């Protein structure tokens, strides 16, 4: 169903408003459909969603895929973050967690929402510890802290929640993307088979899987992939590569990419000097800004180096920024780790600012041009003992954050989906 035919229904609402407020306002019933669509498309997603359910004219309009796509392209990004506590209470629906959001307009306002996530369907004998690790087209992505064989997708505006379950924990989720030609959402899992990694491409629309075999370099699952021109980009997972081959990967093949149209897998080198014997590709991140791929190296003591890929085919990188960490240390009073520098990580680009996580517990927005910074959320507090113990094991806790857009997008699939059908497992 297209947007324009539905817009004719909205005129009845204009008439009702005129009947209620005719003495104080004038309502024009002959507004062009394009103007009405333009007005609705600029409202916040939550405001549009609350205008009416699918049985009302306005609700029917705002729930069409074409309107959701139009709204998605105009929305202002926010920061979504999770303070991770293993002591989060359990309910009959799963573990209850709270996600916090910055406001689209008011800079210092934080909005919080709760969600129940049950991961026991995937691995009944293991604990349920949902961890926020990505966002895509309005859906927050969650996986279990202890294993990657289940993916939970949640739209905090529409409350749509989908759980995708792999047959065992040998399958690891690595991201989601929208296939523009087939108009469907697909999820990528990887699995180690006979020294190589197979990529499982799962369609949420048809609930079918396709396998690409024989690739030697596994992508990391720390954060969701960076999408640029229909290509997914990850840093390599050093530990998974060593598990398969017995040694760490070289820096020449440290960036893994997947073309969503051709389904071609390839690798490229990361910029800057080689890592040396001790690989730290898990401390490096990829991001997109203004149609270019950016590389952030968080592994260097005392500074973060930012590179821009100016020639994709020839793999030409140019150094863009060098961020010194001393001002951040004074601002947060972060503890220092064993290598005598505080743990500062770049998580996302938020406009002209960088979203940093400092000491695994504080979130800051840092402007590299103006050298200014401001805190996101509350100042770090004492956490429960279990979370502290996890943090001491170098697991990135207790706060994680993603760049998120509030949208009206729907996945149009079942609430619980399995990676393989029964006949595909035989």
UniProtKB/TrEMBL annotation:
Pfam families: FBA_3
InterPro entries reported in the protein's UniProt record: F-box-assoc_dom_typ3, F-box-assoc_interact_dom, SCF_F-box_component
Secretion signal, residue range per the UniProt entry: 1-19
Highest taxon in the source lineage: Eukaryota
Keywords for the protein's UniProt record, in alphabetical order: Signal
Keyword ATP-binding assigned: no
The keyword Signal is assigned to this record: yes
Span of domain F-box associated beta-propeller type: 118-380
Cross-referenced NCBIfam families: F_box_assoc_1 (TIGR01640)
PANTHER family documented for this protein: BNACNNG10540D PROTEIN, F-BOX PROTEIN CPR30-LIKE
Protein name: F-box associated beta-propeller type 3 domain-containing protein
Natural source organism: Aquilegia coerulea
Lineage, uppermost ranks: Eukaryota, Viridiplantae, Streptophyta, Embryophyta, Tracheophyta
């Amino acid at each position: 169903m297209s947007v324009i035919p539905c817009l004719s229904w909205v005129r009845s609402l204009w008439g009702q408003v005129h009947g209620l407020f005719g003495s104080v306002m004038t309502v024009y019933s002959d507004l062009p459909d394009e103007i009405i669509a333009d007005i609705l498309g600029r409202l916040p997603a939550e405001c549009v969603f609350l205008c009416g359910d699918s049985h009302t004219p306005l609700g029917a309009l705002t729930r069409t895929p074409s309107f959701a796509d139009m709204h998605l392209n105009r929305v202002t990004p926010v920061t979504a973050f999770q303070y991770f506590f293993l002591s989060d209470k359990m309910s009959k629906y799963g573990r209850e967690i709270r996600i916090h959001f910055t406001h689209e307009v008011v800079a210092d306002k934080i909005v919080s929402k709760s969600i129940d996530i049950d991961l026991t369907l995937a691995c009944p004998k293991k604990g349920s510890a949902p961890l926020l690790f990505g966002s895509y087209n309005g859906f927050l992505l969650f996986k279990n802290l202890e294993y990657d064989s289940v993916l939970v997708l949640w739209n905090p505006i529409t409350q749509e929640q989908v759980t995708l379950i792999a047959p065992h924990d040998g399958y690891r989720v690595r991201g989601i993307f929208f296939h523009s030609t087939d108009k469907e959402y697909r999820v990528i899992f990887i699995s180690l088979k006979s020294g190589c990694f197979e990529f499982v491409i799962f369609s949420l629309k048809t609930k079918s899987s396709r396998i690409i075999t024989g690739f030697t370099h596994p992508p990391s699952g720390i954060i969701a992939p960076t999408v640029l021109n229909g290509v997914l980009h990850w840093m390599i997972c050093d530990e998974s590569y060593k598990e398969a081959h017995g040694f760490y990967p070289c820096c020449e093949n440290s960036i893994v990419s997947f073309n969503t149209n051709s389904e071609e897998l390839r690798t490229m080198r990361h910029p800057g000097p080689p890592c040396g014997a001790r690989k730290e590709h898990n401390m490096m991140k990829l991001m997109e800004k203004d149609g270019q791929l950016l590389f952030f190296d968080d592994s260097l003591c005392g500074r973060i180096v930012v590179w821009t890929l100016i020639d994709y085919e020839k793999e030409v990188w140019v150094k863009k920024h060098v961020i010194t960490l001393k001002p951040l240390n004074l601002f947060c009073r972060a503890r220092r780790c064993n290598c005598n520098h505080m743990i500062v990580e770049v998580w996302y680009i938020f406009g002209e600012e960088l979203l940093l996580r400092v000491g695994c517990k504080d979130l800051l927005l840092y402007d590299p041009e103006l050298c200014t910074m401001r805190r996101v959320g509350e100042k770090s507090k004492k956490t429960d003992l279990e979370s502290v113990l996890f943090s001491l094991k170098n697991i990135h806790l207790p706060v994680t954050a993603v760049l998120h857009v509030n949208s009206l997008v729907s996945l149009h699939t079942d609430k619980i989906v399995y990676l393989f059908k029964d006949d595909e497992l035989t």
